[in-house]
Amino acid sequence: MLLITPRFPFPPVSGGEKWAASLAGSLAARNEISLFSFTNPGTESHQAALAMSLEARLFKKVFLLPRPSGGADKRLPSLPASYWSPEAAAKLSEAVAESGAEIAHILFSEMACYEAAIPAALPVVYTEIDSSYLYPWKSYLRETAGFKGFFKAGEFFKSRSYARRHYGRFAAATFITASDGRDIARYLATGITAVTPNAVNPAEFTPPPEFEKRPGEIVFLGHYPHYPNEDAALRLALDIFPRVKAAAGGTSLTLAGSCPTPAITALAGPDISVPGTAADIRPYLWRAQVFAAPVRYGLGTKGKILEAFAAGLPVVASKEAAAGVEGAEDSRHLLTASSDSDFAAKVARLLGDKALRERLAAEALKLVGGKFSFTGVVSTVAGIYGRVLDGR
After folding, report:
1. Do 39 and 327 touch, CB atoms closer than 8 A?
2. DSSP assignment, residue 325?
3. Average pLDDT per block of 10 residues along the chain, 392 residues long
């Protein structure tokens, strides 16, 4: 099979890339996998070297191209336009032939336009990561998030036209949440669909015995060039955290993750830590007392919440972020908040209530182990492949 992704998912620094990398690694144990992807600007040489090493031990073949300059097709919405080029489409056609793939799997909406470069006889599976690009009030892009989306309605008409033009080709589709599936169902011509949620390997997040909690520590994780994460971290540090400090003394905040933007780096101070890109984010989860996720843009399941659950860390989340974790119940698995003041009050409450922290963490760990383990995702995807190939 040939996986097709917009960004080379190694090392995985964002939620979508983690999903892609986990899927590839798990499928490669029993299947012959090739990968077609683009380098991330500024990391070309490093990623090319990494691709060569992975080709020897994980993939049959890695087709890694420089990211296109974008703008070649004015009909496309802004995000697909930034990844599209006729030259890359021609390279994809060559990759299909060279890989000998029996099935292609496109991840992320921005790569759906490349379905036209794949021979009609080759079945294509699609995975929807986040359908918010279809709605002006839900978009996660910096240029169209929140009220800005209503002033760029043309972008959303383009997105729906784009879905009508390309999604009918797919032989099967999977979605990170059932809600994402309902959003794109009208554009699909197939009935072979499944929910394949953001997921984790819970055992990887079990805290080692030597880790001790730091009293009063709050943590947030994000890949900060992704606008919803930058927005959430700024809101947390500037609006929510001061209220928590006023209600509960001796608190600190860590904004961990990858690639902090200048706006995030500028937040660092005596009680706010911005450690920068870390190869392993788990120690930040293990030592904190509360995970805060005031994310308000985008759809899909926030992998950061699942990672906190798996690490046994109690979570306070915005209602928007919590809604993506299907099956999570307020006051049972996490606390949800509807405003900055409500958010701060619930963080302060958790910091002061050990029994509540332990109860929420225990229930959340059960949920993530039962519903959001990556083993189930791989099984579902493999089943989808089988159905598609059997139906040829």
Report:
1. no
2. S
3. 95 82 91 94 87 92 92 83 94 97 96 97 95 71 52 78 97 93 96 93 90 95 90 97 94 95 96 93 96 85 90 96 91 97 97 97 95 89 96 76
Q: Which CATH architecture has domain 2-199+373-390?
A: 3-Layer(aba) Sandwich (3.40)
Query: Is residue 11 reached through a cis peptide bond, with omega within 30 degrees of 0 on the bond before it?
Result: yes
* Residues 43/6, Cβ–Cβ less than 8 Å: no
State the helix-helix crossing angle for 15-27 and 303-310, rounded to 10 degrees. 70
Q: What is the spatial distance between Cα 165 and Cα 154, in angstroms, rounded to a whole number?
A: 16
Ranges of each domain in the chain? 2-199+373-390, 202-371
Cβ partners under 8 Å of residue 192, min gap 6: 171, 172, 173, 384, 387, 388, 391
Closest CA relative to residue 110, chosen from 128, 136, 124, 93: 128
DSSP state of 3: E
The two three-digit tokens of residue 348, written as one number: 């302060």
Identify the three-state secondary structure at position 316: strand
Q: Do domains 2-199+373-390 and 202-371 have the same CATH topology?
A: yes
- Intra-chain end-to-end CA distance of the chain, in Å: 15
Q: Where are the alpha helices (DSSP H) in the chain?
A: 15-27, 44-57, 78-81, 86-99, 153-166, 178-184, 227-235, 241-247, 262-265, 282-287, 303-310, 319-323, 340-351, 354-371, 374-390
Helix-helix angle 303-310:354-371, to 10 degrees: 110
pLDDT of residue 298: 74
Cα 63 to Cα 34: distance, rounded to the nearest angstrom: 8
Give the CA count within 13 Å in the CB-facing half-sphere of 105: 23
Residue-wise DSSP of 328-386: --BTTTBEEESSHHHHHHHHHHHHT-HHHHHHHHHHHHHHHHHHSBHHHHHHHHHHHHH
Q: Which H/E stretch holds residue 252?
A: strand 252-258
State the pLDDT at residue 148. 54
Report the CATH fold assignment for 202-371: Rossmann fold (3.40.50)
- Give CA separation, 313 vs 59, 209, 240, in Å: 35, 15, 19
DSSP tag of 198: -
